């Protein structure tokens, strides 16, 4: 047995999959919003100046809020839809969306604005899981059960979820108004406020990146489960 085969045997052993990997994932989940948040605080990701004036996004937000939103509101629902069926995906998306909203409320506290855009998060998760499952069921009935069609289903689901999340955010979110310059909001240049069109496209880009990346991850994980079925 080669070294590579030995590594695969260790990684995919029952002890590794049943005990070691869950413990590692649990530690990582606790690490990012606690110690990791402080370690990543000085690091920012900056866009080029020709994109919305070059705004900066703290890396800590990407690896905490971005990962949480992508995992709960997209990756898990898409995974359930592709690996199981549309009903599991839709129900899982609804529950995961509710968990994401509850986690956001716990994080922001008094800064949490209970507006309808949070309902958009729940609906988007539900739709992502249901659409991914529906499309995958259609492909399976046509004998097209492959990673290619799982990715297509996941990407369509991610695009629909992005539209719902961003549109409700633009329409209803108080945070959107705070980041948009007058007359459409009450943001300021000093606080990195953007013009209306820039603010809309920026939020579509950010949400699209989150949902598409995590939908792809969910699609690949759905194929991994087939190794154990």
Write the layout of secondary structure elements.
Elements: H1 3-11, H2 14-31, H3 35-40, E1 44-46, E2 56-58, H4 59-83, H5 86-108, H6 117-141, H7 147-172, H8 174-178, H9 196-224
Antiparallel strand pairs: 1-2
Low-confidence stretches: none
What is the number of strand segments? 2
Largest sheet: 2 strands, antiparallel
Share of β-strand residues: under 5%
Ends: how far apart? 25 Å
Question: Can you give a write-up of this model?
Answer:
This protein is mainly alpha-helical. It contains nine helices and two strands, in the order H-H-H-E-E-H-H-H-H-H-H. Helices cover 72% and strands 3% of the residues. The radius of gyration is 19 Å and the shape is globular.
Summarize the structure.
By secondary structure, the chain is mostly helical. The chain has helices at 3-11, 14-31, 35-40, 59-83, 86-108, 117-141, 147-172, 174-178, 196-224, and strands spanning 44-46, 56-58.
């Amino acid at each position: 047995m080669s070294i590579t085969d030995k590594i695969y045997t260790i990684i995919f052993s029952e002890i590794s999959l049943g005990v070691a990997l869950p413990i590692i994932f649990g530690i990582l989940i606790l690490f990012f919003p606690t110690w990791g948040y402080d370690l990543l605080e000085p690091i920012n990701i900056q866009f080029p100046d020709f994109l919305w004036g070059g705004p900066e996004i703290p890396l800590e937000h990407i690896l905490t809020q971005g990962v949480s939103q992508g995992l709960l509101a997209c990756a898990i629902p898409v995974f359930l839809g592709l690996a199981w069926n549309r009903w599991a995906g839709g129900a899982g998306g609804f529950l995961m969306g509710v968990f994401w909203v509850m986690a956001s409320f716990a994080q922001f506290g008094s800064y949490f604005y209970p507006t309808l855009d949070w309902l958009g998060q729940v609906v988007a998760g539900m739709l992502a899981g249901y659409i991914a499952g529906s499309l995958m069921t259609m492909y399976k009935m046509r004998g097209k059960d492959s990673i290619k069609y799982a990715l297509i289903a996941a990407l369509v689901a991610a695009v629909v979820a992005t539209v719902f999340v961003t549109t409700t955010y633009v329409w209803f979110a108080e945070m959107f108004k705070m980041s948009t310059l007058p007359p459409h909001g009450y943001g300021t240049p000093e606080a990195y406020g953007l013009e209306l069109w820039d603010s809309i496209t920026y939020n579509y880009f950010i949400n699209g990146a989150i949902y598409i990346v995590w939908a792809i991850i969910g699609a690949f994980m759905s194929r991994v489960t087939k190794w154990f079925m």
